[in-house]
């Protein structure tokens, strides 16, 4: 009996250690996220992406390094003079790998839609009919997976705003979603600590959408 109790105790101890946070991983992620938030040029952007990929190779069970590598490629495509389709396609490949690790994840699904939206933005006239529904469906799925995810609501708001501008209709629906996203960001900010490594981006985009109603 005593042996059984010790065995069970050892098992629980192993589970505790196995599921405990990895300080080295979190420190490496925090360093890369900090670097990502102050990228001056394309070369630095690629270095940051490569850094996330190295972490991903070391921690194959984690989805966040792949997520941030994909996010960084999307932002680079919007910011810099690059082959935008190539960058968005690279982001989509990374997103799909992240989805294999964490299926039905609201953050990853949002990023998937963001990459599609990026490809759509290159040529809305010829790509809109195919890609607009894809992006809307992904953002809708992300919202349903986690209604407290401000990025999912923000991206849907941006799509709604783009659709309203394209068809010459009012921005009311988009603005309402933008304001909803800002409320969700306030709630999220209350949870953020110094070593927080989950996604927090998107508030400026929500503000931009909400400002269309002012």
UniProtKB/TrEMBL annotation:
Keyword tags: Signal
Annotated InterPro entries: TPR-like_helical_dom_sf (IPR011990)
Signal peptide: 1-20
Name used for this protein in its record: Tetratricopeptide (TPR) repeat protein
Species annotation: Algoriphagus iocasae
